[in-house]
């Protein structure tokens, strides 16, 4: 019932939350959906009449579900609808009901209860009365939302684009009570080493929920005796009201009534003058005035936004728990029994998932329903896996097999097992790798489009208390397993696999066709292997995979853990064996080739000497990632086209070969195919054999040539990681200020390039060999921390296996102390521990020495270093203890503690921890609040929403902000329909929507959407996730744009606190935060933040980089505001020198910096003159200071944070000028009169006044003259080539979601919402010598080579300022912070 109510409410809520309608086909469907809804009146069942928006395509049961979610009806249940005294069938469509029309009156009718429906009604009442408390999320281990507490706001509906300023409380949080003047606390100032944990989760400003009842439980007379059951009694309930009165209540088909029973006497007869109430809360309101008062207040409370009220689909772990681990509120409903009611039937997870996948996908509405259902089923499955892991590993379930090495469990419709540790795959490490790869294989097959006939089982893996278990839905069984069908053909059961045997059936042909299509999509090659019986078996998958025909008639593929090709860098022994199984002749031939060449085909020259690869791995299941295969195929395709071009040029050129129609072109293609390793001789086609380099796989002699080609390709792909991908990642980090901040963002960034985490040691080696090693120290720190924590986790998993359940808290705290405290040794067992044991009720037995308690810090460190050397090929990098990591790499122990807890599921008590005291354990048993399962699961698709989101990103690249804004609103609507916005990609979509709205001058809408984005990020990704940090920064900018300076400062300080916690101060993004804080704050603290930002940018990007020059300018601006013109001149001279070296003397930015330096000089001279003229009374002379305007500060924050990026290349503008000159020349030749406002100078300098923004503003509209069209055609003959050049030149600077502004003739037009604004004096400085004046002209909003970005004068007002050349990319290479697509951006470098 709960799921159904949520589903109905979600549909209705999505309609209410829609921000706007988009364009295109899907938008038309949405618009039609909205227009076809109409109101109806709801009456009856004791509720006040109200109106409800319904859809003609809805079923009657959909209307009932929507009604049950309304506050006016809740918690009533078991209702039906009538129209004109006729009961409506639940499965009937509203539009088919006779007499149904807009404005019709529908009456709610109370239906009789059954035992089941009465229990469900009580469960609804209990769910309503259990109002969420501020600490509930932490107690359940879920990441909380801190935004409301931080800003003290009551957030309105985020869909309102013109929402008023939020109401704020005047009180401050406890952590900021001493800073009522708005100054940042000392621990947030630059250079502070304090890292208070208590400040991470401030106390909530929400009031505690009142108590409604003292107790509500099943009566001691329950269950009813037989004769009372025959009279309709379902159950007996006892309620203790807040007034102290005890009542016994009977549940019956008509509802609930008071009976005459007492504690001592059973009398089920109705009490005198006791009415029967259909809703249980009506009865409680009748007997208890206190309950009526609190219940009325509960129903009238302001509703939370959906993103705060709705539960997240998946569990996002919070590594910090409540400050007080003990309960502060008793559960008055625990004895009612509604929580422990077992389901009438164990869920069949496989059937539910396959039924959801088989839903129709013909229309948008059907696809959205299918995706929403899939998400609901999968999230329920993952929750069941978490509960099952706790139940099994806590000892509440018995294994169903007798194998102690691999116990298997059946619980809640799940089959859970650890899997057998095979020596072939590497024992325990191989077992864990197989489970992880199985999940990836299931994900790969599930993501294939158009493969509805091929099914996979619901799968997840869970790590809990050091044990990894694999959980799957129960397989439907094999078709034909009935003994009566033994003589049937072999079309049932095992249809595909090495052991399937020869057979022929329609089902097998269908399965082979599906697997062939899947192999093509996954890039897998059809291959032939030798079965154990010696027969040749053709395969489209790995050798382990099996194809089954289930008893439900569906085709399943299982055991897909070796779906992707092997990593040749980590399987040298397997490589030798795979070659040896072909034939003796090939062995001898191969050995001769190796003796002659010394290097096997595919490895680069000196590859082994330089990298030490290939080498052995701790397990035998090292596979390549699909992202790597995609990048490698693109790399080979570039080689292919280059070889074809070179061959054709050698044979006379492409045109001659094409005109001659001879075999030269075909020969060139064939030669290129052979050279790059294409599996086809005629076209470029790359596929990989997943069985090459796999343990125990044999190939027949006829497959010798294809196998050797595959071995070569896999060696090249493995070497591609070392030679291309890792250096590309390091280069990205070198130029990007939003490089990975923690382990999660590092892992995501590496995986997007196809780099497995087993290459972390080689990433570290590449950084150490780089000449920019010092500038990459933040990446070194992150890599070292990730290596250390991952090796520690493996040691921790083995450590927990020898710990009894009563000692878990003590063992975990002891392990953490050994890990983080230098030279920690366990305290001897003495009287003190005995006293503690007695206090805890364990007697003296707890004081006995156990194996885990004898672990010392040095022993643990040796184990971690040994694992790191074995896994990541690093030897002395970790040093001899935690002090080495702190001193050599700047690693924070708090950051290590956070990473450890997130990866192991440990939750710590919220308090400050001190790790420097070696005489006292910093973490005690009472600090371990809980341990939660960490689940990895199959991610369900959001196909339609993701496609619209990608289309919006494409429109942003073209500069079509208006269309992109509409598409983003459409994508946000679709995400809301599918996942109620609680999805990582929905978070990225809303963030981009807020940015585009802000750039269009819609600051209130941007602020409203960004509030929602921050809440989504905190709840879905984590309250301290790197993406949450960036979203807080954006929110601070939007709040400042709305005049909420105090709230903007709080958001930026919150972002800095999180940044200091997860990484520390020494990171390029900290410079971004400090620059913003320096702009917002006043006094000396602003200078501290700006000077720290300058120090960081100088150390990370160099003294002549754009970042450094920008910070010099900001410091000069701040010093001007203080009147220190001498220092301001020094910093501006540094900025001018940097701009001159980057762009030359004639660049706009250089001229602008010169003008500002001249302004400072003039002001300094004027001040000096005034001081001299004042004589001895100079102390009373008023000195006017140069102060930046609010608009200037906002513009600087927008550029510093990367909300708007500025490009440096003028190629597109140069092309426009050239194109218009040729067009004008053609017009003059034809004798046409030129329009005065279409001249070259006017168009290039001022922009095309009437350029069609629908097309990106490439050409001018000319009235439709055929002659002019012909001239334009001549001028536009090289449009495509020039645009491609511009695209290629800007590829290194572009980000998938970053708007860019192009400059025309050295001046950037900062316009938006149809307005161009500019200032006649650089930097928007206001003083007696510099007063900016604005000029408005109609412009179009375009980005990235299609014109200019637009922004209202109230948001951005400056022209030709220092900011025109600042390049702050939003994200490079994917969602390291915000999930945007793969684009590498070189931040801070200008292309000339």
UniProtKB/TrEMBL annotation:
Domain Clu stretches: 327-571
Q: Which UniProt keywords apply?
A: Cytoplasm
CDD domains from the UniProt entry: CLU-central
**Feature: compositional bias, Polar residues:** 151-175, 1314-1328
Which one of the record's GO molecular function terms can you name?
A: mRNA binding
Composition bias of kind Basic and acidic residues appears in: 1285-1301
Gene3D superfamilies named in the record = Hypothetical protein (hspc210), Tetratricopeptide repeat domain
The annotated regions of Low complexity compositional bias extend over: 1267-1279
Q: Where is this region: Disordered?
A: 1-20, 151-191, 828-853, 1239-1342
Q: Where is the signal peptide?
A: none
- Assigned GO CC terms: cytoplasm
GO BP: any one term = intracellular distribution of mitochondria
Q: Name one Pfam family in it.
A: TPR_12
Q: Which SUPFAM superfamilies match?
A: Hypothetical protein c14orf129, hspc210 (SSF103107), TPR-like (SSF48452)
Name the record gives this protein: Clustered mitochondria protein homolog
């Amino acid at each position: 019932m709960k799921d159904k109510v949520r589903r109905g409410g979600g549909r209705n809520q999505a309609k209410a939350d829609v921000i706007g309608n988009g364009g295109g086909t899907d938008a038309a469907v949405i618009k039609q959906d909205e227009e076809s809804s109409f109101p109806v009146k709801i009456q009856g069942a004791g509720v006040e009449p109200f109106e409800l928006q319904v859809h003609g395509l809805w079923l009657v049961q959909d209307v009932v579900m929507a009604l049950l979610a309304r506050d006016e009806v809740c918690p009533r249940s078991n209702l039906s609808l009538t129209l004109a005294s006729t009961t409506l069938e639940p499965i009937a469509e509203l539009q088919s009901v006779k007499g149904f029309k807009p404005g019709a009156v529908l009456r709610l009718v109370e239906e009789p209860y059954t035992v089941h429906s009465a229990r469900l009604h009580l469960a609804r009442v209990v769910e309503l009365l259990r109002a969420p408390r501020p600490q509930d999320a932490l107690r359940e281990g879920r990441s909380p939302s801190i935004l409301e507490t931080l800003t003290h706001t009551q957030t309105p509906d985020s869909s309102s684009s013109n929402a008023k300023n939020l109401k704020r409380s005047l009180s401050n949080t406890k952590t900021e009570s001493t800073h009522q003047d708005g100054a940042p606390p000392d621990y947030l100032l630059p250079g502070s080493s304090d890292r208070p944990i208590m400040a991470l989760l401030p106390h909530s400003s929400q009031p505690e929920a009142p108590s409604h009842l003292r107790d509500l439980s099943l009566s001691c007379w329950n269950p009813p005796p037989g004769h009372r059951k025959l009279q309709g009694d379902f159950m007996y309930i006892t309620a203790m009201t807040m007034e102290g009165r005890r009542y016994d209540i009977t549940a019956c088909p008509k509802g609930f009534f008071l009976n005459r029973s007492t504690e001592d006497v059973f009398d089920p007869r109705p009490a005198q003058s006791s009415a029967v109430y259909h809703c249980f809360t009506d009865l409680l309101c009748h007997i208890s005035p206190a309950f009526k008062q609190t219940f009325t207040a509960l129903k009238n409370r302001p509703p939370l936004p959906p993103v705060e009220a709705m539960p997240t689909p998946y569990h996002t772990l919070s590594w910090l728990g409540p400050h007080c681990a003990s309960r502060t509120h008793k559960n008055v409903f625990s004895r009612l029994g509604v929580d422990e009611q077992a389901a009438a039937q164990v869920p069949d997870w496989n059937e539910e998932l396959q039924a959801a996948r088989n839903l129709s996908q013909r229309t948008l509405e059907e696809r959205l329903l299918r995706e929403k259902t899939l998400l609901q089923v999968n999230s329920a499955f993952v929750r069941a896996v978490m509960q099952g892991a706790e139940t099994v590993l806590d000892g509440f379930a018995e294994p169903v097999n007798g194998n102690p090495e691999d116990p298997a469990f059946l619980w809640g419709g799940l089959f859970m097992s650890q899997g057998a540790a095979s020596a072939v795959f590497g024992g325990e490490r191989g077992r864990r790798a197989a489970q992880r790869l199985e999940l990836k294989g299931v994900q790969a097959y599930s993501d294939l489009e158009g493969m509805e006939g091929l099914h996979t089982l619901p799968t997840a893996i869970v790590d809990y208390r050091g044990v990894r278990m694999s959980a799957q839905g129960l397989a439907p069984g094999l078709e034909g397993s009935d003994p009566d069908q033994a003589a049937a053909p072999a079309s049932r059961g095992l249809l595909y696999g090495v052991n399937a045997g020869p057979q022929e059936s329609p089902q097998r042909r269908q399965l082979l066709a599906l697997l062939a299509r899947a192999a093509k999509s996954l890039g897998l090659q059809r291959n032939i292997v030798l079965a154990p019986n010696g027969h040749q078996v053709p395969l489209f998958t790995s050798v382990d995979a099996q194809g089954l025909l289930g008893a439900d008639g569906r085709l399943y593929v299982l055991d897909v853990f070796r779906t992707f090709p092997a990593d040749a860098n980590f399987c040298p022994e397997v490589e030798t064996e795979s070659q040896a199984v072909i034939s003796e002749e090939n062995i001898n031939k191969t050995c001769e080739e190796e003796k002659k060449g010394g290097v096997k085909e595919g490895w680069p020259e000196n590859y082994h000497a330089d990298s030490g690869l290939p080498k052995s791995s701790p397990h035998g299941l090292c596979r390549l990632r699909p992202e790597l295969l995609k990048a490698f195929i693109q790399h080979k395709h570039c080689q292919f086209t280059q070889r074809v071009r070179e061959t054709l040029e050698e044979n006379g050129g492409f045109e001659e070969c094409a005109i001659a129609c001879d075999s030269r072109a075909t020969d060139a293609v064939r030669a290129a195919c052979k050279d790059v390793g294409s599996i086809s001789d005629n076209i470029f086609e790359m596929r990989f054999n997943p069985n090459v380099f796999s343990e125990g796989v044999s190939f027949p002699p006829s497959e010798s040539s294809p196998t050797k080609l595959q071995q070569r390709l896999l060696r090249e792909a493995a070497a591609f990681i070392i030679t291309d991908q890792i250096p590309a990642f390091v280069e990205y980090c070198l130029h990007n200020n939003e490089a990975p901040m923690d382990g999660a963002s590092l892992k995501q960034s590496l995986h997007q390039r196809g780099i497995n985490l087993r290459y972390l040691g080689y990433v570290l080696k590449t950084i150490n060999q780089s000449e920019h090693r010092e500038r990459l120290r933040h990446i070194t720190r992150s890599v070292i921390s990730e290596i250390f924590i991952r090796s520690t986790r493996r040691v921790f998993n083995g450590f927990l296996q020898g710990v009894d359940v009563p000692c878990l808290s003590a063992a975990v705290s002891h392990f953490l102390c050994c890990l983080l405290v230098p030279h920690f040794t366990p305290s001897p067992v003495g009287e003190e521990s005995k006293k503690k044991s007695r206090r805890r009720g364990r007697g003296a037995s707890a004081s006995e020495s156990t194996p885990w308690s004898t672990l010392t810090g040095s022993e643990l460190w040796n184990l971690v270093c040994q694992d790191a050397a074995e896994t990541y090929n690093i030897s002395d990098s970790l040093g001899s203890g935690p002090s080495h990591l702190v001193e050599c790499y700047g690693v924070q122990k708090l950051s290590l503690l956070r990473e450890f807890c997130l990866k192991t599921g440990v939750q710590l008590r919220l308090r400050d921890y001190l790790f420097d005291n070696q005489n006292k354990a910093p973490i005690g048993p009472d600090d371990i609040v809980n341990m939660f399962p960490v689940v990895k699961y199959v991610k369900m698709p959001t196909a339609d929403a993701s496609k619209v989101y990608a289309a919006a990103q494409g429109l942003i690249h073209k500069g079509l902000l208006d269309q992109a804004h509409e598409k983003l609103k459409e994508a946000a609507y679709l995400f809301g329909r599918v996942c109620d916005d609680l999805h990582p990609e929905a978070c990225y979509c809303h963030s981009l929507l807020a940015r585009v709205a802000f750039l269009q001058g819609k600051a209130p809408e941007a602020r409203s959407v960004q509030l929602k984005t921050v809440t989504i990020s905190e709840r879905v990704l984590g309250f301290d996730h790197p993406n949450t940090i960036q979203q807080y920064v954006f929110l601070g900018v939007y709040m400042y744009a709305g005049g909420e300076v105090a709230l903007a400062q709080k958001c930026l300080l919150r972002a800095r606190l999180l940044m200091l916690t997860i990484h520390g101060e020494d990171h390029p993004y900290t410079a971004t935060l400090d620059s913003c804080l320096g702009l917002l704050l006043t006094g000396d603290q602003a200078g501290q933040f700006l000077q720290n930002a300058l120090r960081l940018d100088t150390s990370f990007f160099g003294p002549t980089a754009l970042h450094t020059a920008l910070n010099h300018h900001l410091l000069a601006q701040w010093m001007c505001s203080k009147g220190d013109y001498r220092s301001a001149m020094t910093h501006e001279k540094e900025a001018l020198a940097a701009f001159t070296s980057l762009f030359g003397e004639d660049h706009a930015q250089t001229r602008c910096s010169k003008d500002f330096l001249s302004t400072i000089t003039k002001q300094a001279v004027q001040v000096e003159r005034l001081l001299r003229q004042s004589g001895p009374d100079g102390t009373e002379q008023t000195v006017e200071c140069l102060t930046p305007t609010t608009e200037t500060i906002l513009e600087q924050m927008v550029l510093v944070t990367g909300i708007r990026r500025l490009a440096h290349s003028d190629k597109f503008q140069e092309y426009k000028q050239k194109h218009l000159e040729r067009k004008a020349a053609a017009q003059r030749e034809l004798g046409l009169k030129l329009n005065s406002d279409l001249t070259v100078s006017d168009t290039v300098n001022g922009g095309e006044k009437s350029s069609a923004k629908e097309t990106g503003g490439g050409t001018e509209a000319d009235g439709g003259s055929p002659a002019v069209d012909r001239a334009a055609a001549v001028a536009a003959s090289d449009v495509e080539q020039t645009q491609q050049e511009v695209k290629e030149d800007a590829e290194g600077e572009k980000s998938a979601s970053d708007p860019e502004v192009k400059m025309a003739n050295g001046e950037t037009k900062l316009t938006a919402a149809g307005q161009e604004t500019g200032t006649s004096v650089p930097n928007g400085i206001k003083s007696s010598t510099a007063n900016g004046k604005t000029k408005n002209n109609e412009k179009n909003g375009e980005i990235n080579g299609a014109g200019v970005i637009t922004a209202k004068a109230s948001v951005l007002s400056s022209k030709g300022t220092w900011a025109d050349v600042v390049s702050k990319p939003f994200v490079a290479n994917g969602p390291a912070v915000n999930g945007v697509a793969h684009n590498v951006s070189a931040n801070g470098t200008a292309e000339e």
